[in-house]
Amino acid sequence: MGRVRAGGRRAGSSALIRGQTTSAQSSGFWHDPPAATAVRPPRALAALAVAGCVTGLAAGALTLTSDHTANRGPYLFLALVIGWGFIGTGLFAWWRRPGNRVGRLMTVVGFAWFLASLSDSGAALPHTVGLFVGLVWGGFFVQMLLAFPSGRLESRRERAIVAAGYLMTTVLQALPLLFGEGSRECDGCPPNLALIEPDAGLAGALFAVQRSVIVVVGLSVCATLARRWRSATPAQRRSLAPVLWAGGVTGALVALSAAAESAGMYPLSDAFDWAYLGGFACVPFAFLSGLLRSRLHRADAVSELVERLGEAPRHGKLREALADALGDPSLALAYWLPAQERYVGASGEAVELPPAGSERVATEIEHEGRRVAAIVHHGFLCEEPELVRAAGAAAAISLENERLDAELRARLEELRASRARIVEAGDAERRRIERDLHDGAQQRLVSLLLNVKLARREAGRERAEKASGALWDEVEGQLRQALSELRTLASGILLPVLADRGLGAAVEEITSRSPVPVEIEQMPAERLPERVEVAAYFVISEALANVVKHAEASKASVRVAGGDRALIEVSDDGAGGVTLEDGSGLRGLADRVGALEGRLELDSPAGRGTTIRAEIPCA
After folding, report:
1. Does one domain contain both 382 and 487?
2. pTM
3. Is residue 530 part of a domain?
């Protein structure tokens, strides 16, 4: 793709000279810059604006004083409109959205366009530089079109097209100039100082290759923009349409110009050059038009949203109203529960916000300084952050109301799940007790009954005293063992000492039986309410059981503090990495504590031990 250079003609020739741009590697626009370099202060932008005015005036002076530039008046007008249009619009976009590359790329295109005017100079050195840098704007323009509106190249195909654009404006422009004066004769132009060895055939062949790449890149840009248009939503098209159409028409005209020149149809090529100059000049104004259309749509959308919210929409209609206002039918709402520090949907179900880098984006909404919800929307709305924020601000009160409804539904859902788990845990506990009684104490007592019968039979036989004594010894041992098993089973249900002597004595008895050393750091001086002591007992008992079974710990500690809210804490120095979902025991404890309006927390970093902490209201 080349810049029409009436100033690049040799005297008496209708040929047009095209220039060069910097390489893709040195452009520095392919990757996101650090946040610190993305923002430009107003003074820096003002300085760039002044530099743009001076550069444009200097380029205009070169064109007006050139003795080898035809149609200087019309070309000078278009050149200034293009250069200043891109610089002015680019600086405005850079100021409004400093993190987006589109504004920077537009500014670079404008400065690079003026740089090509060096070829209008009557001196050999600046003229030669102008030949080489005459297309410095071309690669950046291709990147700007394909990166619009996000400022990023989204696919390998787009990166390949941009790479080809930089190739055609650098290497493929520089090589022919080493063997020839230009793509067409220019009798009045200064000599090309970079000419190594004149070879018109080789230079013509290299220029033909460049024109072929120009055709391919131009048509590829058109095809990419057409696909982007087809896949855009109506809301996207409002802002994308002007730039996509102006850029697509410009790319098509550039390809036609290069094809006509390759075919030797120079008058037709010149006509296409002037046509694409007109389309190229429209691109920055198309950008402003798209921005204006987007702002008008934003005002209308927010106004309509406010009107719909004033009608007190029924439950579930808020999402529809926001989706219509933002033009995203897939929009979803997630409500923030501060007590649980998580998001839930309208029905109370847990919601995970989309991860970074996905097509979906979450915008958090605050009301009176508090986070109330997040709007999960398509990534294209990131180009209109003001619209999302305005819609969220308009709907903040409604979002707060729905958040309260969602919080209530989440609590009801958790209550249902907790009740189900409690029932399941109760059934499982009854089965365990039945199994322990059947396999332990019951079998022991059956064996004891058989031994009593045998003892009676042996009592009337010879050496009955000795045999009977041995059997009675065995009976006594089995009675002791059965008693021990029954005590263990009973303590698993509820330790009697808990009711008699309180939580401190019960904890001492639990820790005394633990194979892992346990330190009791603190116990309340006064008795806690019965329900709190029972819950604390089970928290400590289950936590220490997990320490013995799974933690691989060398020691543990227990701390219980009273007050308005009882604090129960069990820590160990084991392997860690435990979650509430790892077993029904911890989940059951969370349900038990939650039933008392308390909260159970688990801190278990891998390799750094585990701390189970419960807070239970005592009032």
Report:
1. no
2. 0.53
3. yes
